[in-house]
Write a structure and sequence with these properties.
Strand order of the largest sheet: 1-2-3
Structural class: mainly beta
Distance between the termini: 129 Å
Radius of gyration: 52 Å
Helix content: under 10%
Number of helices: 1
Strand content: 15-25%
Largest sheet: 3 strands, antiparallel
Length: 113
């Protein structure tokens, strides 16, 4: 309905406001005339207010989200190396000795018969 416009369509014949222009709302056609949409005869202020009500309202713009600001990377500062204090060397792990081999059992002499 964005093609709608206000146009004057004659003058008022009412005794209180005789001779004042009467406005209506419509669309302009190919012949140069108007196709009336609102037939009520109105004053110019009334017609403008009614036309404003009929016009589609523009959609509300969504607030644009700002991109997240990334903190500026600070150069990595390594802490000063601490001096190692002289400490006792770690104790060596004790390696277990292999278990002694079991002596093989000797075969008993067999009895011959």
């Amino acid at each position: 309905m964005s093609d709608l416009e206000i146009f004057q369509n004659g003058t008022s014949l009412h005794p209180d406001n005789a001779g004042e222009p009467v406005y209506q709302i419509g669309k302009k056609n190919a012949e140069g005339g108007y196709d009336v949409v609102v037939f009520d005869g109105m004053s110019k202020k009334e017609a403008e207010a009614r036309l404003a009500e009929m016009q589609p309202k523009p959609p509300k713009a969504k607030p644009v989200e700002k991109p997240a600001v990334k903190p500026v990377a600070k150069p990595a500062v390594k802490p000063a190396a601490k001096k190692k204090q002289a400490s006792k060397p770690a104790p060596k792990k004790q390696v277990s000795k292999p278990a002694p081999k079991k002596a093989k059992a000797k075969k008993k002499p067999s009895r011959k018969r």
